[in-house]
Amino acid sequence: xxxxxxxxxxxxxxxxxxxxxxxxxxxxxxxxxxxxxxxxxxxxxxxxxxxxxxxxxxxxxxxxxxxxxxxxxxxxxxxxxxxxxxxxxxxxxxxxxxxxxxxxxxxxxxxxxxxxxxxxxxxxxxxxxxxxxxxxxxxxxxxxxxxxxxxxxxxxxxxxxxxxxxxxxxxxxxxxxxxxxxxxxxxxxxxxxxxxxxxxxxxxxxxxxxxxxxxxxxxxxxxxxxxxxxxxxxxxxxxxxxxxxxxxxxxxxxxxxxxxxxxxxxxxxxxxxxxxxxxxxxxxxxxxxxxxxxxxxxxxxxxxxxxxxxxxxxx
Length: 315
Ligand SMILES: [Zn+2]
Hints:
By secondary structure, the chain is an alpha/beta fold. It has helices spanning 2-28, 80-94, 108-111, 130-149, 220-232, 249-272, 277-285, 296-311, and strands at 34-38, 41-44, 62-66, 71-74, 98-102, 123-127, 163-165, 168-172, 177-182, 192-196, 201-209, 237-242. It has one domain (30-250): Metallo-beta-lactamase, Chain A. The chain has a 7-stranded mixed sheet with strand order 1-2-3-4-5-6-7, with helices on one face. A 5-stranded mixed sheet has the order 8-9-10-11-12, covered by helices on one side.
């Protein structure tokens, strides 16, 4: 009798424990479509579109990393409503203060939810060139969002960072160190990456586009160099600025590298043939893509223009 009873009690105890664990997990599971990429790292994936009234500007990847002491948020999203949704999901799931809001770069789809994280305890972190880039473009970015979202844009906008990174910086979330690196001009002139030491997860911002066409708002040649350096880090996981998380750096960067290499070589050939900018955009802009990039028709011709301007005075 004793043995079965002990077994029954033990089973009951396990069941209660299991139920408790499930309940705890259910309570702690983040909502707002947040996906777990690695231990303590959660990403909300934006839609692979341009900002529209229908998607509310929810088009970039944003998320957070949980340490023992506090949470670091990476990018705040394309509007105040998106930043607020992320903040509230973190409060429900992590129950720890947000000590850092880290900006991967100045583009509004990544930073217009900043006001949701305004708190004396939260340090806003960005690349050293971020404040000047923001000052130059803030009004234009805001006007565009207002024309797209109307009243839903109210309260949206990028806040001024309080900690600038010009080279490297390490942040500690409590037994969890993040290595930040500010890069020379690539996707923009203010790209900042975040590497989680514990899981070797690299948050790339828009230095990596997956499935969606890369956009050159900086220098293609600089971007190719930065991509080589990021690949050399051999991260176990990568969180791109747009598109699904990746788990192999060579596979992740391959299509983007091929696109930018091809863009640079074809623009160089056009310059050598003394094609004007208009002729080059016309010719290369109408070439079919090697890969079926999302939003190709919206950005490819713009990229040709950017790279032509970049390479025009090259020796
Ligand atoms: Zn961007």
